[in-house]
Specification:
The chain is an alpha/beta fold and 388 residues long. It folds into two domains: 269 residues, Glycosidases (TIM Barrel), CATH 3.20.20; 97 residues, Immunoglobulin-like. 24% of the residues lie in helices and 20% in strands. The strands form three sheets. The chain has a seven-stranded mixed beta sheet with strand order 5-4-3-1-2-7-6. It has a five-stranded antiparallel beta sheet with strand order 8-9-15-11-12. Strands 10-14-13 form a three-stranded antiparallel beta sheet, with no helix packed on it. Helix 4 packs across helix 5. It starts with a strand and ends with a strand.
Length: 388
């Protein structure tokens, strides 16, 4: 285990009493614990021995004695009422037992029985994470890793069985097919509605997941890019996992701190368009590509977390997240038209102190919203309209 993941925000309890068989057909029926869908945003921390030389990337082996960092970080995270998760890389290329299994074309499982199985159970029992992020699995199929046996134990008997969520990296062929949520690939952002919960894992440093001392600002994602990614991902039913690589001292570099603080400031104002939301009938506006939609429903449906609302769902509000302020201070969108033609909707612009009610009209099947003077807006990256 050489990296950590901290997955954020809400504590919402889930209970599932079904006893799962160690078979994908049964494991795949598990209901996603609500806290993960509600949270939407998490922080990924790549911090390991490669942070000592801080050269090239996290793919750097170096001997480094350390304290129980997992315990210390986990304790700190839980103190702030956040969810704590663990990243675990299955492969150890230099391990002699792994090399034996690989040389046997993975027809033996010495490494899994002697290392992986006890290692994973110890981590679960000792640290009780809410999220398990598996990786380093691609050289062998799930049967070698005993993936279904582990997941059955995790869901049925482990101390975190009611709360734990896992990703889809359980061996070749498992990506985008098995898991409480799908990663599919790094930076997975399909920008279309997905019918299974997915996660967009991205690094603020576009060249590395671990800290690099030679990183320059141009190597990092801007706040505009980050907020655009959050909007498009959540609109399509996904969560966002944002990676930072601390220095060897455990300090988050200033450029990463700046991005996280900027994101936090934006969420303080506009977070209701992100947290505890669901996909709406439309995701990206068909006229204005800079607009993404989410909605808030009266009743949470744990069986349909990534689906559009049903006819009998009560929608409390629709959110239009627009990433570019129009030069004429008039926002034009098309996909709201059919829902606003025959109803008395109010449109408000979310702001730091109050909601600003806006005028609008519908012309040629286009909703045209009159915005305030853009020159007076403090944010320069993304904005939210609340339609209710």
């Amino acid at each position: 285990m050489w990296m950590l993941i901290l997955c954020l925000f809400l504590r919402v309890h889930a209970r599932d009493h079904h006893y799962y068989k160690p078979e994908w057909e049964d494991l795949d029926t598990r209901t996603l614990p609500k806290w993960y869908d509600v949270a939407k945003i998490g922080i990924f921390v790549h911090w390991g021995v490669y942070s000592v030389p801080a050269f090239r990337s996290e793919w750097f082996w170096y001997y480094w004695r350390e304290e129980d960092i997992v315990y210390l970080v986990g304790k700190a995270v839980k103190t702030y009422d956040m969810e704590f998760g663990i990243y675990y890389s299955l492969m150890e290329w230099e391990n002699k037992w792994y090399q034996i299994d690989r040389n046997n074309n993975y027809n033996t499982s010495i490494f899994v029985e002697r290392v992986i199985k006890p290692d994973i159970k110890q981590l679960i029992l000792d640290y009780k994470p809410s999220l398990w992020w598996s990786d380093g699995d691609w050289d062998a199929d799930p049967s070698y890793w005993k993936a279904t046996n582990f997941l059955a134990w995790l869901y049925n008997e482990s101390p975190v069985r009611h709360r734990i969520v896992v990703n889809d990296r359980w061996g070749s062929g498992s990506y985008c097919h098995h898991g409480d949520f799908y990663n599919c690939d790094d930076r997975f952002n399909p920008k279309t509605l997905q019918h299974h919960k997915f996660e967009n894992a991205l690094s603020l440093d576009v060249q590395s997941w671990g800290y690099r001392r030679n990183m320059v600002p141009l190597d990092t994602i801007s706040i505009s890019q980050l907020l655009g990614t959050i909007a498009s991902t959540v609109s399509c039913g996904g969560n966002v996992l944002i990676n930072v690589g601390p220095t060897k001292e455990g300090v988050i570099p200033p450029i990463f701190r700046e991005r996280l603080l900027q994101m936090g400031e934006w969420l303080e104002v506009n977070g209701e368009a992100i947290y505890d939301t669901s996909p709406w009938y439309h995701q990206n506006d068909s006229l204005n590509p800079h607009v993404w939609y989410t909605c808030k429903k009266e009743t949470y449906d744990p069986l349909r977390v990534s689906d559009v609302p049903r006819a009998n769902d009560s929608i409390l509000s629709i959110y239009a997240i627009f990433l570019l302020w129009p030069v004429d201070d008039t926002l034009s969108v098309k996909d709201l038209t059919n829902y606003m033609k025959n109803n008395n909707y109010h449109i408000q612009l979310l702001g730091p102190e109050k909601y600003t009610t806006l005028d609008y009209n519908i012309t040629s099947d286009v909703v045209m919203v009159k915005l305030p003077d853009g020159a007076n807006m403090t944010s320069k990256s993304a904005y939210v309209l609340k339609i209710s």
